[in-house]
Write a structure and sequence with these properties.
alpha/beta; TIM Barrel; eight-stranded parallel barrel; two-stranded antiparallel ribbon; 12 strands
Length: about 400
């Protein structure tokens, strides 16, 4: 049964509205690649249905599906989801319907892997997949490989390529709306295509898409603007960025804040703050990276007014609550804790919620929820129902 250890209302279990889309709480399932689409065609499977469905059953306010490619060459691996053609819509629509039916907001992250595309699935090594073995040519802002084990050298995108890629993002977003997703996130982080345009480490172009800050952010702003214009006003739009490359000459927080202002002006509704992924030789510290991301989420929120998402090793409900209370973010994105326990919000509710701020699914609520518990307690007092597990009333009732 959910209880509360605080006298003031929990922000984690307070609803938030983004462009008319209301999340019942601030707990968001971060997009996590499963590499389990069918036969190289990017179609969702029962694995996606069961895994994401469990998160919705668990009470998350928002459930976001993994990076979903806007074109076939934008897949990280042959097992990645896609939305580049209409026959990919219905399997995703089935998932979106179930998520919404549990009271969660169905969301999807749209992505293009760029020079990090055409790799084997991680459990087979995550190295580049040769074309002779089912791989495909990759593309990027410049003909620079990410580096071993992702050794493929991408084609330097022409202006025609860039225009087609922008069209692909818009087309995928329209399909996502048809599938029933109420929130879309554009993946501009982790060294994937748009991230490599943003970063001077990977972008060595000398045209209008390279060089200065204004040129390097051009593709991100053009995609975000075009997608926003193509979406109905009932669908919220977010962007995930890497707030730092962890390199002195790379993308940094100051540029992130400026980009956030420009995205906000285009109608983007929140910024999901992650980090890294452009440079292979950076020694990422698993303990420091979340601090960088969470601190950046607070800075962006305070300096631009754009709602932000904090992400990175957030496993303790009290930690999540403190981030929100300190003005460190508007949303809490959680990944690994949900892999450990798809019902993580139940744990958070035990610490922070009340019967007014959290409800279990009705299939559970009748026996373990607030309504079920108090009804059982009243009936036990009246002698109508036996105490649980053979305990006496004195043992279980106040």
């Amino acid at each position: 049964m959910a209880t509360t250890t605080e006298t003031k209302e929990s922000l984690l279990f307070t609803p938030i509205t983004l462009r008319g889309v209301t999340l019942k709480n601030r707990i968001c399932v971060a997009p996590m690649c499963q590499y389990s689409a069918t036969g190289r065609d990017g179609v969702a499977t029962d694995w996606h249905m069961v895994s994401t469905g469990a998160y919705a059953q668990g009470g998350a306010g928002l459930v976001m599906l993994e990076a979903t490619a806007v074109e076939a060459r934008g897949r990280i691996s042959p097992g990645c989801l896609g939305l580049w053609q209409d026959d990919q819509i219905e399997p995703l629509a089935r998932i979106a319907r179930f998520i919404k039916g549990q009271g969660s907001v169905p969301a999807i992250q749209l992505a293009h892997a760029g020079r990090k595309a055409s790799t084997v699935v991680p459990w087979d090594g995550h190295h580049s997949l040769p074309d002779s073995e089912g791989g495909w040519p990759t593309i990027g802002p410049s003909a620079l490989a990410f580096g071993t084990p992702v050794w493929k050298v991408p084609k330097e995108a022409t202006i025609d390529d860039i225009n087609k890629i922008k069209e692909a993002w818009v087309g995928a977003a329209i399909r996502a709306v048809k599938a029933g997703f109420e929130l879309i996130e554009l993946h501009f982080a982790h060294g994937y295509l748009v991230s490599t345009f943003l970063s001077p480490v990977s972008n060595q172009r000398r045209d209008k898409y390279g060089g200065s800050y204004e040129n390097r952010v051009r593709l991100a702003l053009e995609i975000a603007g075009a997608v926003r214009q193509a979406l109905p006003d009932t669908v919220a739009l977010g962007v995930r960025v890497s707030v730092a490359d962890y390199e002195p000459r790379g993308w940094d927080l100051a540029q992130t804040i400026q980009l956030a202002r420009e995205l906000k002006a285009l109608g983007v509704d929140f910024l999901d703050c992650s980090s890294g992924g452009v440079s292979r030789d950076i020694d990422y510290n698993a303990l420091n990276t979340p601090d960088t991301q969470i601190e950046a989420a607070g800075r962006v929120l305070r300096e631009t007014g754009l709602p932000t998402g904090a992400v990175g090793k957030i496993v303790d409900p009290h930690h999540a609550e403190n981030i929100l209370r300190s003005g460190g973010a508007s949303l809490i994105f959680i990944g690994r804790a949900f892999l450990d326990n798809p019902h993580w919000p139940f744990v958070a509710a035990d610490a922070l919620a009340t019967h007014d701020t959290f409800q279990y699914p009705p299939q559970y609520d009748w026996c373990i929820g607030w309504k079920g518990f108090f009804k059982w307690r009243q009936e036990a007092k009246q002698g109508v129902r036996q105490p649980l597990l053979g305990m006496s009333i004195a043992q279980v009732l106040p």
